[in-house]
Amino acid sequence: MSSVKFGKLDFASPILVASGTYGYGHETKSMVDVNGIGGIITKSVTLHPREGNPPPRIAETSSGMLNSIGLANVGVNEYCKSKLPYLNELNTKVIINIAGTAVDDYVETLKILESAGGNHVGYEVNISCPNVKEGGMSFGVSAKMTESLTSELRKCTSKLLIMKLSPNVTSIEDIAVGAENGGADALSAINTLVGMGIDIKTRKMKINTTFGGLSGPAIKPIALANVHKVFRAVKIPIIGLGGISCVEDIIEFILAGADLVQIGTLNYREPGISIRLAEELDLYCRDNNLTSISDLKGLAEYR
Amino acid sequence: MSSVKFGKLDFASPILVASGTYGYGHETKSMVDVNGIGGIITKSVTLHPREGNPPPRIAETSSGMLNSIGLANVGVNEYCKSKLPYLNELNTKVIINIAGTAVDDYVETLKILESAGGNHVGYEVNISCPNVKEGGMSFGVSAKMTESLTSELRKCTSKLLIMKLSPNVTSIEDIAVGAENGGADALSAINTLVGMGIDIKTRKMKINTTFGGLSGPAIKPIALANVHKVFRAVKIPIIGLGGISCVEDIIEFILAGADLVQIGTLNYREPGISIRLAEELDLYCRDNNLTSISDLKGLAEYR
Amino acid sequence: MIFNELAIVESTEEIASNTFQTFLKSPKIAASIKPGQFINILPSEYWDKMMRRPMSVASQKDEVISIIYKVVGEGTELMQNWSLGDSVDLIGPLGNFWDGYADKLSILIGGGVGIAPILNLHNHLDELGEEKVLIMGARNSSEHFIDHNPENGVYMTTDDGSLGIHGNVLEPLKIALENIDIQNVKVFACGPPAMMEAVRQYSISEGIECDLALETLMACGFGICQGCTVEFEKKQKTTEHSYRNRFGLVCMDGPIFESKEIKSCHL
Amino acid sequence: MIFNELAIVESTEEIASNTFQTFLKSPKIAASIKPGQFINILPSEYWDKMMRRPMSVASQKDEVISIIYKVVGEGTELMQNWSLGDSVDLIGPLGNFWDGYADKLSILIGGGVGIAPILNLHNHLDELGEEKVLIMGARNSSEHFIDHNPENGVYMTTDDGSLGIHGNVLEPLKIALENIDIQNVKVFACGPPAMMEAVRQYSISEGIECDLALETLMACGFGICQGCTVEFEKKQKTTEHSYRNRFGLVCMDGPIFESKEIKSCHL
Ligand SMILES: Cc1cc2nc3c(=O)[nH]c(=O)nc-3n(C[C@H](O)[C@H](O)[C@H](O)COP(=O)(O)OP(=O)(O)OC[C@H]3O[C@@H](n4cnc5c(N)ncnc54)[C@H](O)[C@@H]3O)c2cc1C
Ligand SMILES: Cc1cc2nc3c(=O)[nH]c(=O)nc-3n(C[C@H](O)[C@H](O)[C@H](O)COP(=O)(O)OP(=O)(O)OC[C@H]3O[C@@H](n4cnc5c(N)ncnc54)[C@H](O)[C@@H]3O)c2cc1C
Ligand SMILES: Cc1cc2nc3c(=O)[nH]c(=O)nc-3n(C[C@H](O)[C@H](O)[C@H](O)COP(=O)(O)O)c2cc1C
Ligand SMILES: Cc1cc2nc3c(=O)[nH]c(=O)nc-3n(C[C@H](O)[C@H](O)[C@H](O)COP(=O)(O)O)c2cc1C
Ligand code: FES
Ligand code: FES
Hints:
By secondary structure, chain A is of the alpha/beta class.
């Protein structure tokens, strides 16, 4: 696999694993050569530890799943102490996903991570988690708030700063432009869609918080549309995700305008999928005489 | 099947067929007892005939499909001449779906239909078709425009006036309230989600208009969430739709707050599905000692 | 009259490389279907895709019809794995049918999976005792299951020359047209888009009457979704469905169109 | 050490009404799995759902493990239809295992599909020559496949009285506890939530040590999705995963929990 340029960085493979779907990279190490993954984006970390939402937190849907984990995580201090050392040993690129409820939160979390001296190459900022009552999501739906959050974070780091966008908006382009204007290096699209389910036997909501995030192949067409809209709206690189389950999906995302992709839900079913698809992508490039898959970026033709 | 009250009307079955997915009711008559369907919502009709979008207009997705038909239809005058007479003969409730690009359009279309003297019980107003360039969709994303369109239409008819909402918005509640304030009798939720697909062999968009509408079981969790949000926001009745494929889905929509439901995409695969599910719903009511399925409206319990 | 019928699988046979013929007992459809029409198949009770799989009917006799298909994806793989006695949900007969072969020399051209409706017409002309030429195109000999027999008007072509005429279906078409008044000829073709487009353009340039059976994605198959469009060469006169004046529905107005009626076979 | 192993189907047998036992040759998992642990199964190569199907291991011998399951939906239906020699994608061993049976009288309680991990522990105690009581609950006799044999400490119960003791598993549990110092007893239970909750509450009220194997929906099975939570009775001390102090992960911290550790068996 020829490497893929992304801003100032080279990624050995364009296939990363999505936040919340690969833990801290060590859970699968007996099954998967984790260093073969293009990059690991860790589970959202917040300033303070969060115990997450009460069960039930997940439900199965047609070609997808609902989740409402509620950003369960150890908190940034414990993260620096117990997660970073292992992450530092990895030979793949680590991107730390952070979440918060107010600008100060995000900024403080980022500062603590910056001073911890990890080998991580950057941050992905979750402004789009639909499952936390107190906020977070409010950033994701406002271009102005996204812009100011981005510019505050920009001041604190020279590492890769990626804003992760929500599809649950009327115009994702506006939010994307806000993040670009705020100084983001790149954008990830998309986070989950707001969904719901009811257990008809108990007549109770299937997810504790009523609404959960829908992920998986069901949302792929929506994710592709959003990636393409973002591609037309901004000049910075894009990481595409949402429902990727096969190499054809990856090629679609790149043709739509993505530079890199992330695999989320499918990691649960097949922990080694990102390695398998990287091999298949290699074959595809060879069969199609591409020096790099990046050659296809944004090449989808209109009819 | 005990009938279901909906505003001032009684529906023999709560299961209707969705606009654009059952033609004008006669295409399936050799396969299905069309009069056994709770109601038929006809394909969107516009003031002038529309030839629709160039091919390709449809694509298959995981548990769903994309479409961009572009409101192909005969126009309201021809509709009154050639479609209404047959529809008038049906023994099921007919609701005429209308679409337009400006308030005047919609109003004029409605007036022509009103003066044609059909037996139809009402109108469903498509303010949410994502596949028409010139507009229509702009109503669906603005609460104010929805309200004023609704009130203009309200002045022209005393028949059932149903506004059909789009899920492609930050807050469907706002639009729902706009329609309620404008005098709508009821709301339908949801229309399709904006999606996209790329043929990786030709590198061309799978849908002629780049973006198409995603429908089918893939979107059911999103549809349910939107129906429940609308249920919490307004007092008028709701018709739930989006991905319904089995009797359990129907019960979920009713528990979420719907009074009636519509079946869309699944009609293509099984033209008689609305009849089969009505029978299964009858059995469910009997087994659960319900006098009417309406008893379950909005009963989903929070955790 | 369209039926939604549960058919019974009678047998499946591999008739050429990766090409299968399945016989289905489907009395209502078998009694009313005409050569060129198709059925829309639910490959399995648990089918989770939205679209059925359309297949032309390759033969019809008494209560039994057959389909001929290449295994190209999940749907056709399921079909190939049907067991004897399985019941299968069909909708049909769908679409229009071959016509205008009465007083003419019919030249039948089939390629790839497009052989099914051509074979059914061939059988029908056999029964009627009508004169005809049969041309079948394929990439190589493994895809053919009929003997090359030019003396009797049966031509096989292969792209690699491994059987019959080396080249495409236009070669034998030209041979068949030698010394014949083209006013007395009609071509019927079904096959891959590139093949049909070549036949279409040739038929127009030579002024030969030619009908083509097109394929496109279909969500319903019976005129409701409006998804299966083909663009007409010029606007058609207003019909029952006047909004079809620029676009025809392959499932209802087709699958068979006159070559000069449509813009292209590439859909 | 967790493996992602392709196992080979050796046999499937219906051991009770709608209950099947399948033997799978899975050398790595068989060599390392302990009674109480489970595997996570991809029911088919074409599985289009996001979640594998978790199953406790019911026996392990040489290179072969077995699972016992009720057919309740698409996944288990696919399992039941596996053919001899099929290869099946497994992840395992997963979760914690039964423990603390060394110097005690073990009372094993299984109900419904919860019999698998109980049977595996039973086998294990057999091998160790440990003293034990086995109690199996079911709705009626058709669900049982073991003889009611109170003399040897094997009790069957049925809700309808059609076999063994008429009633629920608490009846034989009380019998087994007669004249025994509860300090020397440990209960191991797995079954439907209502049954386990009854056992849990009884064990707490009587002060009996009791471990329960829980079930919940699982997206991953190996600690990544955080979806499979059970609520603890009181906050646990900070562990490697300190954010689990209120909620435990059934897949990693469990599936086996002490009865007094958790709030309820209804997940
Ligand atoms: C009127 C009509 C008659 C046909 N008759 C025959 C026939 O006699 N024999 C035969 O082998 N095939 C025939 N086809 C094509 C056949 O429908 C497809 O090969 C089949 O649907 C593929 O299904 P799949 O799930 O196996 O493959 P998929 O994995 O779904 O697709 C494989 C390929 O088939 C194409 N395809 C998928 N669905 C359709 C569809 N609904 N219509 C057209 N193409 C599709 C896709 O574009 C893709 O390139 C016909 C199509 C039409 C429209
Ligand atoms: C640790 C663990 C061990 C298990 N061991 C066994 C066993 O030894 N034998 C056995 O028969 N069953 C066992 N189960 C339950 C088994 O996983 C489900 O019966 C199975 O997943 C149902 O799949 P299905 O596709 O056939 O049914 P579905 O149609 O998916 O569901 C039918 C019912 O099963 C439940 N279910 C579905 N998926 C899961 C899941 N991932 N976890 C729990 N419940 C689910 C649903 O809530 C539904 O009510 C175990 C579950 C867990 C978590
Ligand atoms: C169980 C679960 C937990 C997730 N947790 C996070 C998270 O902590 N932070 C985040 O930014 N995204 C989180 N996501 C969203 C994914 O990173 C991804 O954006 C989304 O699932 C769409 O991709 P997919 O369809 O490939 O899963 C989570 C998704 C799932 C399914
Ligand atoms: C091919 C197709 C055509 C449609 N045409 C219309 C239309 O003309 N007017 C309209 O209001 N909705 C139209 N819809 C949307 C459906 O009525 C319905 O809102 C949507 O498909 C979601 O329901 P489903 O998932 O059950 O299909 C169309 C949907 C499809 C798939
Ligand atoms: S396939 Fe639906 S109209 Fe032709
Ligand atoms: S099932 Fe994913 S963490 Fe337990």
